[in-house]
Specification:
heterodimer; A: 281 residues; mainly alpha; MetI-like fold; globular; B: 266 residues; alpha/beta; Rossmann fold; six-stranded mixed sheet; four-stranded antiparallel sheet; 7 helices; ABC transporter permease (chain A); transmembrane (chain A)
Chain lengths: 281, 266
């Protein structure tokens, strides 16, 4: 060894397990890269499910085989109606998300920068937050009818709270020391907000948008189950009414897919914005 | 020596502090952080302020920086009462306080506002070079070491070409070797910029190495105990007899009754 001195009893050697454990998994999965290990369980699950269905051990009407679900998806796609349902659901989520997020951003921005307004508004919002969101449903239906506006309003309510709460706490937790640097360079209030407070609160804001979007997807299901004639939620209810479990599961898969896709979009944008700071969301 | 104003010789004084007192309310009771401080600093002078923690030395610097304006007595910069921060007084804090979303170059340009003029960018680049970060202009703060981040922070304070640079224990968080290197850099910067420097520190060695005068502060209430001139040519040799003499004189101010460790005996 380079330094010439080598004690006879080497106490600091890696336990044999520590280095071996890395290879044990790859030994099991062959040449599968480590990051795909998580896919193993679902894949095995789906294959076992398919095999059990084919063997006739699962009732086809309750547990349709994965391939028959895929078949249902293809069927719906070919009929063209699926695009319609997906389109309307995504449109509702996007509209509700935009309305909820914009209102939350404005309100959190004002409350965050003006203590008086914060003291005035924040307790009320904290109180409203405790109302289970589903409790709004009858009221929105009564006020806005069964059409789009009540659904979008419900989604907007769901999106509003996480965005507001995260952004406000992000603004309030901006490092006082950074704000002081702003004072040293004689920034006025507006410059301070624009150049210091908002960039500093950006990570919290992105976390809020992300969980807001998650709630948006949750609420669109609720809104569409409640009463809709279009959308993925409607498709699920339709599947339930007509006893087609494959349609319900296909809808669940699509919800998962689009939920993940939109989440990924925010994550990507966020990480692009935050990468420079050496952090991510 | 106690509380006397040091007359300025030669050059005009840029900072005049007379009868400065700062009281804080802590849990309903009054605490005097600074009491009857008198100090004049000449243009271009390098002043070290040394004291134990809680002696009010940082409060004094914050008052000079204009970050603390609720003081009694007089604090004049260029003859005008200090009422708030000003671009003629650059501040370097103990932590680098760089903005994590800006590159080194953007951070250094921060104090210039909307940098548009060629002159401004020249000042930015010149100061980045001065602190030795030329190859790291595009780096983000998290990519820098502690010493490099502090250099960037010094460059930011200098980019506005302030008359005075206020340094609040700027090397307190750095390791011993980086610290010595940074002290040498600060001397180089001082010579290049000809700015007045006011350095707050708890490091006797640092205070003597850098200062034209060392202001010794006593604890609770913070008062100026003594001001010791350091009439040694620069660069100063930390191991020289004269240097150690000044050092032990300051040491004696803090630990009069206690035994001096043998390391400081000659």
């Amino acid at each position: 060894m380079g330094n010439g001195y080598q004690p006879e009893e080497t106490v600091l050697s890696l336990p044999p397990d520590a280095s071996a454990s890395r290879f044990r998994v790859s030994g099991l999965t062959g040449r599968l890269p480590r990051k795909w290990v998580g896919a193993l369980l679902p894949v095995v699950f789906v294959i076992v499910w398919e095999l059990l269905s084919r063997a006739g051990l699962l009732a086809a009407n309750w547990f349709p085989a994965p391939l028959s679900i895929a078949g249902t998806l293809v069927e719906l796609l070919q009929g063209g109606e699926l695009f319609h349902h997906i389109g309307i659901t995504v449109a509702r989520v996007v509209a509700g998300f935009l309305i909820g997020a914009v209102l939350a951003t404005l309100l959190a921005g004002i409350a965050g920068s003006t203590p008086l307004i914060r003291e005035l508004v924040d307790p009320t919002i904290q109180a409203l937050r405790n109302i289970p969101s589903m409790a709004w449903v009858p009221l929105f239906l009564l006020w806005l009818g069964i059409h789009e506006s009540s659904k979008i309003a419900l989604i907007a309510v769901g999106v509003f709270f996480p965005v507001y709460l995260n952004l406000l706490s992000g603004i309030l937790n901006v490092d006082r020391k950074l704000i002081e640097v702003g004072h040293v360079y004689r920034l006025n209030k507006l410059q301070l907000v624009r150049r210091v407070i908002l960039p500093a609160a950006l990570p919290a804001f992105l976390v809020g948008l992300r969980s807001g979007l998650g709630l948006g997807w949750m609420f669109v299901v609720a809104a569409e189950i409640m009463g809709a004639s279009k959308g993925l939620g409607f498709l699920m209810i339709d599947g339930q009414m007509t006893g087609r479990a494959s349609v319900i599961i296909a809808s669940i898969v699509l919800f998962a897919l689009f939920g993940k896709l939109t989440d990924l979009m925010i994550e990507r944008c966020g990480n692009r914005l935050l990468r420079q700071r050496g952090v991510g969301i | 020596m106690n509380g006397t104003s040091v007359s300025t010789t030669g050059k005009e004084s840029v900072l005049d502090i007379r009868g400065l007192t700062r009281r804080f309310q802590v849990n309903g009771s009054e605490v005097t952080a600074l009491q009857n401080i008198n100090l004049s600093v000449r243009q271009g002078e390098f002043i070290s302020v040394i004291g134990g923690s809680g002696c009010g030395k940082s409060t004094l610097l914050r008052i000079i920086a204009g970050l603390d304006t609720e003081y009694e007595g007089e604090a004049l910069f260029d003859g005008a009462r200090i009422k708030g921060p000003g671009l003629e007084r650059g501040v370097v804090f103990q932590e680098h306080r760089l903005f994590p979303w800006l590159t080194v170059r953007q951070n250094v340009a921060f104090g210039l506002g909307n940098v548009t003029s060629k002159d401004d960018w020249e000042s930015v680049d010149e100061h980045i070079e001065l602190v030795g970060l030329k190859d790291f202009e595009g780096a983000y703060p998290h990519q820098l070491s502690g010493g490099m981040a502090q250099r960037a922070s010094i460059a930011r304070a200098l980019a506005n070409r302030p008359e005075a640079l206020l340094l609040d224990e700027p090397f307190g968080a750095l390791d011993a070797l980086t610290k010595i290197q940074m002290q040498q850099e600060v001397l180089k910067i001082w010579e290049a910029e000809k700015a007045t420097m006011i350095l707050v520190t708890h490091d006797i060695d640092e205070a003597v190495f850098l200062g034209d005068r060392v202001v010794i502060m006593s604890n609770r209430p913070g008062t100026i105990k003594r001001i010791i001139p350091v009439d040694l040519p620069r660069p100063r040799d930390r191991g020289s007899y004269e240097f150690t003499q000044v050092r032990s004189a300051i040491y004696a101010e803090f630990f009069r009754q206690e035994e001096k460790p043998f390391a400081y005996e000659i």
